[in-house]
Amino acid sequence: MAAPSGAASCEDFAEFQELLRVMRTIDDRIVHELNTTIPTASFVGKVDAGQTCRELYESLMDAHTSRERIIKNCIAQTSSVVKTLREEREKAQDDVALLKQLRKEQTKLKLMQSELNVEEVVNDRSWKVFNERCRIHYKPPKSQ
């Protein structure tokens, strides 16, 4: 379940959200993934649970890192646009269209910043489930 490749479009918030939704598939399906790959006591000899948990750990780390990078990149881009629009607004205070564009970009920036909070909740949930099911099979490096 690799993350989609390619640059994230920060212009359209709906497209940005759709990209994150697709990238969160691994987190949404973690319980199913663990149920189908980590053996019960009766099948313990047939599957290498340690290897499976390590691969899942690496997939989760990659997904979380790439999503955070995309969100922060879009926040930086949108912040830059807001800054530029604010500077233009200082010069042309009567420009209603400019004010509307500034408000629109500020709203988009706030929504993107809120995605960082959503990301934190999604990640915490995934790590909790991962640790419950994989703690006896695989110990992640201490950086986590």
TrEMBL record:
Ranges in a coiled coil: 75-105
Keyword presence, Coiled coil: yes
Secreted keyword on record: no
Key words, A-Z: Coiled coil
Family under the similarity heading: Belongs to the MIX23 family.
Any GO CC annotation of this UniProt entry: mitochondrial intermembrane space
UniProt xrefs under Pfam families: MIX23
Record's protein name: Protein MIX23
